[in-house]
C-alpha cells in the first residue's frame, strides 16, 4: 500500500538591513530576504527570492495560472519527484554583489535535492543548515532587467524506500531557503563569506572560501 503524508516546503524570505561599520567612513551594503516579503532595497542592493507555484501533486503550474510564490505545500509519497526551484533575483540597478543562500533542511536522507553544484558552492554546514555561495559576482547596476540567478535546485526526489515508519517519524517538515547579498566593492570573498555565515547564524563552523569569479 502506498503511504503518504503532507509536509510543508517553504522558501523563507527575510528583509533585514545589515550595516556593518568597519571604519569610521566605510560600511558594507548588504541585503537579506524576509518572511513573505518579496524584495528589499538596502543601500544600492535589492534582491528577492521565490519559486514556482505547484499543484496538489507537487508539479509546477504552467500556463495562465503559473506564478512565482514564496511558499508551497506538498504531499509526499514514496518515489515521487516534486518540483521546487528556489530562485534568487538581483534587481536591476543593484551594485555588484556576492549572493549567498542558506538551506535549512528539516527532511531526512530519504529526500534528495538536485543541487546545482556548478552554480552554488558549499561554504559552511551545521546540522541540517548549509550555506552556499553563487559562483560568480552579480552586477545589475547598468542592467535594464533584473538578473535571475540559477535556482539552487529544481526538484526534491523521494526515495521509493520511504516506509510507513519514516512517514510517522517525519510528520510535517519544512525545507527553508533564505537569500543574502553583500557588496563586492572594498570587500573580498573571504570577508563576504564570513559575513554571510554569521548573518545566517551558523555560529563557530569551518568555512570554505569559495572561488567566486
Helix and strand topology:
Elements: E1 4-11, E2 14-16, E3 21-23, E4 26-27, E5 30-34, E6 39-42, E7 45-52, E8 68-69, E9 71-77, E10 81-83, E11 87-90, E12 97-105, E13 111-113, E14 120-126, E15 129-134, E16 147-148, E17 155-158, H1 164-170, E18 175-183, H2 189-199
Parallel strand pairs: 1-18
Antiparallel strand pairs: 1-9, 2-5, 3-4, 5-18, 6-7, 7-8, 7-11, 10-17, 11-16, 12-15, 12-18, 13-17, 14-15
Organism: Clostridium facile
Protein name: SipW-cognate class signal peptide
Kindly describe this structure.
- A hairpin with a 2-residue loop joins strand 3 and strand 4 (26-27).
- Helices cover 8% and strands 42% of the residues.
- The chain has helices spanning 164-170, 189-199; strands at 4-11, 14-16, 21-23, 26-27, 30-34, 39-42, 45-52, 68-69, 71-77, 81-83, 87-90, 97-105, 111-113, 120-126, 129-134, 147-148, 155-158, 175-183.
- The protein starts with a strand and ends in a 14-residue tail after the last helix.
- The relative contact order is 0.24.
- It has 213 residues and is mainly β.
- Strands 1, 2, 5, 9, 12, 14, 15 and 18 form an 8-stranded mixed beta sheet that branches. Strands 6, 7, 8, 11 and 16 form a 5-stranded antiparallel beta sheet that branches. The protein has a 3-stranded antiparallel beta sheet with strand order 10-17-13, with no helix packed on it.
- The protein is globular, with a radius of gyration of 18 Å.
- It has one domain (4-199).
